[in-house]
Write a structure and sequence with these properties.
The complex is a heterodimer of chains A (319) and B (330).
Chain A lengths: L6 H26 L4 H6 L5 H11 L5 H13 L13 H36 L4 H15 L2 H15 L15 H32 L2 H8 L4 H38 L5 H10 L3 H29 L12
Helix pairs in contact in A: 1-4, 1-12, 5-6, 5-8, 5-10, 5-12, 6-8, 7-8, 7-10, 8-10, 10-11, 10-12, 11-12
Chain B lengths: L5 E10 L7 E11 L4 E5 L6 H9 L6 E10 L2 E2 L5 H7 L4 E4 L13 H12 L4 H14 L5 H4 L9 H13 L5 E5 L7 H18 L2 E6 L2 H7 L2 E6 L2 E7 H6 L4 H9 L48 E4 L2 E3 L4 H9 L1
Parallel strand pairs in B: 3-8, 3-9, 6-7, 7-8
Antiparallel strand pairs in B: 1-2, 1-4, 4-5, 9-10, 10-12, 11-12
Helix pairs in contact in B: 3-4, 3-6, 4-6, 6-7
The chains are: A mainly alpha (319), B alpha/beta (330).
Chain lengths: 319, 330
């Protein structure tokens, strides 16, 4: 097991140039946004003199490449710059928002698995049956509903219609957070389910038709024991990479959902920062999201390796 | 004679179709396997031999079912038996070995655990005891260094070792009937020989009966005491292996024997059987082999020949058997 995880350090080293490339793209894309940060801060009515003064103070007049090297230089010191709107370090802003978004994603993933695994199994054990058709209809429905709309519907239904959950916000104490996060997580989970269910259903059907499930049946294995012992782990292998890829997209979705549910996560910060041309914050959030996707990629490979003993990414033995 | 361990009678397997006649793949098959007997079922691909075995193990592929007939194991009728009760037979009473040791083992579970699964379920062994039994079974099948190999995953073992694992798994609960579906087809010849030896020895030790499906006549000759030759879902000839091989009484059996190389007579010319097996959806009336049979007469294409006892314990289903074979001998 452990020797097959030797690929991790190498993968981490590989992600350094990726991260560097990300800083380049992030920095210059942010500069491509039309509009002037100083103008955005001071408002449309500001006079030209004060705009010029603020631009100078923010270093916006320097050549782009100088601004970039300043940005990189600070980045190496762990300094993401100061938010132009809030006038506090971006790192401080991120450190408050990241836990919110990560717990949102984590809970969403958990819910998605809790919903998907039984539904996929239900469908796969009787392909073509009414319950299979039902599950497939659900995946179609889940895919057809836009996330923000689904979020609003859930609020109308479960927060206003039947006041089970809060309409929005994050709660005041850590004990409150899961309760406040439930509806937004459910929204994301429902958006994520169709892909997971489809992938799991088809791989479960493959596994159920495989010779080794025949062998297991010939040993008298059936039902839940057959499912746990022989079906689930094999069927999960292709689905893990599907989930890994989708987590990246899910971050994008979470930005919108956070806005719908008024969660003080990265999404809210990002959207405000874009509207106010708060470049350092935009850069900080984007950099974090990019690194998150890189880390998820590595984690996907780790989980994959742990599930499937045939996978050896270290490239030493099976070259 | 005592009650046979397995008695298959008029077993018909096929695909049910709505509003159309069913497609029959195996047509009213009957044979008995006595305790301790090693019974070979020989036939070419698509003759229904594997399906017959799978019907006994209740592992027919989706859509294919037993249309009629009976399978009695140790006096108990298996067809119509509640699934839960029938499942309990699988492992301690009946076990199965599959054709492809590459795909018949779960790729993500250590082989020792796969062997231990049955004994844990049926013999009520602790995890520890079952693991020890698994290692012991592996040692019995001649796997060197079984304690270390038990911790291996299937892909880390060779085909021969994997098939030994399958044998260890099948025998772990001490079954009385072992169903083998071409267990050596995927192995090379030397390994094939070793695996068959192991299988034979272990069956002889435990007194288990063997139902052995193969297309390889040499394997039957080496392994089995009795055999049935299947063609297009019918048994065309059956009897003691030695007798059927030396004195075939059905033109198909004779064709099979003539088309296989014989190392005692390397100069003998191999004769192939012309034509192909019939399409099961459009079965010819009469003897299914008639269209390919050089001895066929008119009666062969109109009625199914009855199974006659051509010699004590030797059966053949051919109208012309006496004319062809006794005439040739005379």
């Amino acid at each position: 097991m452990l020797h097959r995880l030797r690929f991790i350090p190498g993968r981490l080293v590989q992600s350094i140039p990726v991260a560097f490339g990300v800083t380049l793209i992030v920095f210059f894309m942010a500069r491509l946004l039309p509009g002037n940060a100083a103008l955005a801060i001071l408002g449309q009515q500001a006079n030209a003199a004060s705009v010029a003064a603020l631009s100078k103070q923010l270093g916006l007049n320097q050549p782009l490449w100088e601004q970039y090297f300043l940005f990189i230089g600070r980045l190496f010191q762990g300094n993401l710059g100061t938010s132009l709107t809030y006038q506090i370090p971006v790192s401080e802003l991120l450190s408050q928002a990241i836990p919110v978004t990560l717990s949102l994603l984590g809970l969403a993933l958990l819910l998605a698995l809790v919903i998907s695994v039984p539904l996929a199994a239900l469908a796969a054990f009787r392909p073509g049956s009414p319950r299979d058709l039902g599950v497939r209809a659900f995946t179609l429905l889940g895919q057809g509903m836009p996330q923000f709309w689904l979020g609003i519907m859930l609020i109308l239904l479960l927060a206003i219609g039947v006041p089970l959950f809060p309409v929005g916000g994050y709660g005041n104490s850590p004990a409150d957070h899961p309760y406040y996060l439930f509806l937004p997580s459910l929204t994301l989970a429902i958006a994520m389910c169709p892909t997971i269910i489809r992938s799991l259903r088809s791989s479960m059907i493959d596994v159920l038709g495989s010779d080794y499930v025949g062998t297991a049946r010939s040993k008298g294995s059936y039902g839940a024991a057959l499912f746990r012992g022989h079906v689930l782990r094999n069927a999960a292998i292709p689905t893990v990479s599907v989930i890994g890829v989708n987590l990246g997209f899910l971050v994008g979705g979470s930005l919108v959902i956070e806005k719908v549910f008024a969660l003080p996560g990265l999404g809210s910060i990002m959207i405000n920062a874009i509207f106010t041309r708060d470049f350092p914050t935009v850069q900080g959030v984007t950099l974090f999201v990019a690194l998150f996707v890189v880390v998820v990629g590595i984690l996907t490979d780790v989980v994959y390796t742990m599930l499937d003993p045939r996978v050896d990414l270290s490239g030493k033995e099976n070259a | 004679m005592a009650t046979p361990l397995l008695s298959v009678s008029s077993l018909t397997i096929g695909i049910r179709r709505k509003g159309q006649p069913d497609t029959v793949i195996v047509d009213s098959l009957s044979f008995d396997i006595q305790k301790g007997e090693r019974f070979g079922i020989v036939g070419e691909s698509g003759s229904g031999k594997s399906l017959t075995l799978r019907a006994i193990a209740d592992l027919l592929p989706k859509g294919v079912e037993v249309l009629s007939g009976s399978i009695r194991y140790d006096g108990a009728e298996l067809i119509g038996m509640p699934a839960a009760q029938r499942r309990k037979l699988m492992g301690p009473e009946i076990a199965m070995i599959f054709q492809e040791p590459m795909t018949a083992l779960n790729p993500v579970v250590r082989v020792g655990e796969q062997i231990a699964e049955g004994p844990r379920r049926y013999l009520g062994l602790s995890k520890q005891a079952a693991a020890e039994l698994a290692i012991e079974m592996m040692a019995k099948t001649g796997i060197p260094d079984p304690a270390r190999r038990a911790r291996a995953y299937p892909h880390e073992l060779s085909g021969g070792l994997r098939q030994r694992i399958m044998i260890a798994m099948a025998l772990s609960c001490g079954p009385k009937l072992l169903l083998c579906d071409e267990p050596t087809t995927a192995l090379d010849v030397t390994v094939q020989h070793q695996v068959l030896r192991v299988l034979e020895e272990l069956c002889a030790d435990s007194g288990a009966s063997l139902a052995f499906v193969t297309h390889d006549l040499a394997v039957v000759n080496q392994t089995c005491t009795d055999l049935a030759v299947m063609y297009a879902g019918h048994i065309v000839e059956s009897g003691r292996v030695a007798e059927v091989f030396s004195d075939p009484r059905h033109p198909y059996t004779k064709g099979l024997l003539d088309s296989a190389p014989d190392f005692d007579q390397p100069d003998r010319e191999l004769v192939s059987i012309p034509g192909f097996p019939p399409n099961l959806a459009a079965r010819p009336s009469g003897c299914p082999f008639a269209p390919r049979c050089q001895f066929a007469v008119e009666a062969c294409t109109t009625a199914m020949p009855p199974t006659d006892e051509v010699a004590p314990g030797h059966f053949a289903a051919c109208f012309e058997s006496a004319r062809i074979f006794e005439g040739a001998a005379a």
